[in-house]
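Journal club prep, notes for RB
We'll compare a predicted complex against what the paper describes. Inputs for the aspartic acid case:
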Amino acid sequence: MKERMLIGDLGAHTSETVSISGWVDVRRDQGKMIFFDFRDRSGIVQGVVLPGSPAMETAKELRNEYVVRVEGVVNKRPERNVQADRQNGDIELEIKAIEIMNPSEPMPFDISGDTSGIDESVRAEYRYLDLRSKRMQKNMRVRSEFVRRCREHLFAKHFIEIETPLLTESTPEGSRDFVVPSRINPGKFYALPQSPQQYKQLLMTAGFEQYFQIARAVRDEDLRADRGFEHTQLDLEMSFVTMEDVMAAVEDMVTSVVEAMGHTIKRKPFPRISYKDAMEKYGADKFDLRTEEEKVSGVLAYAWVVNFPFFEKTDAGKWTFTHNPFSMPIPEHLDWLMKGERIGDILTTQYDLVCNGFESGGGSIRAHKPEILEAVYKVMGFSSEELEERVGHMLKAFRHGTPPHGGIALGVERTIMNLTGETYLREVQAFPMTRGGKTAVMNAPKALTDKQLAELGLKIDKK
Ligand code: ASP
């Protein structure tokens, strides 16, 4: 057999005998002749088995989604059969030999079109088939391209990519933690990171100055259309910067990446609005600035929201942070924080990036001096001991030459939803969970064996 050629390359090899490998996308048995569409990662081509072809016997056996190797001659189609709107619409593979590399059972649902209307649990069970559909292939490729372009942009700006631990201590992002029991420390638990917040700040202490990471963040939150237990964030942090610097760097990256991907941005520079004005004008801190027409044409309407209150009252009447306890107040309000005055009026340096009705990212300038972080925790009613227990390690780092710094995290899925026009997070993740929190394909969560429980020193309270 000849060496494999990609289907997307066949057009340049007319009159040649070639070999392709891929899936049977469609089969049309016309009795004397059988037509197929074959598919690989590079595209689609029509093949035909003519009467009397030595491949006829095998061809009769082929069904949709069989994996095959096909040898044939690339013929130019006669003018009247050319399908100009289709990839390889001007050629046809005259099949000489077929090898079945693996047959397939019939598909549990139709993967030839948009699968979004198929029952969620069936799609999840056969996610690898769902992912074969054209729309899902495109969504995953858009995601890959977005991340690749962001990486390239940040490398060109001299950022360094660093991974931070998955097994770690609880970070206060305002959600519940997912915890992992420690076998060698019975009764003790790690938390999966709700974000790399503290580690990225420590990387600033470590002198890297410009860090980024494509980070997984795990939060035990109520599942919604645009929110799952796991998501990916493009997380970055910079030293010796102001709000303006970080916002400009992010705006530059987002603009150049999405424009290179063929998208139009409604307004540049991105408009800015205060939290107060946003609430008055739109009744929310995320809003959609597009006209109906722009919605149809896929325009991206970015905006920054700034001047959020630092603190809000809990139901119990205590102060808590609105966004991020590690933030710095705006410079004009630092004094109030340090004196514990006018707590409800203190604004934080938080900046949220909004796009087409979603919060697409958020970040802030951080407290980099121990007394500032201490003041934040004091407002929230923490005692000195509790403070030490919660963030003692950060205070210690801040006493060892931590530079001023700030950063942001952009939600990768929410961005891809905007780029693809999808309304559900699960359409832009390869293996998302169902709304009931069950994993795709694999069977989690599930019970541990008695042996595992004993090893971890855990007893399950069966209510
Ligand atoms: N850690 C924040 C978050 O995950 C982002 C940031 O402030 O950089 O939302």
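Talking point for the session: Residues 25 and 37 are 5 Å apart (CA to CA).
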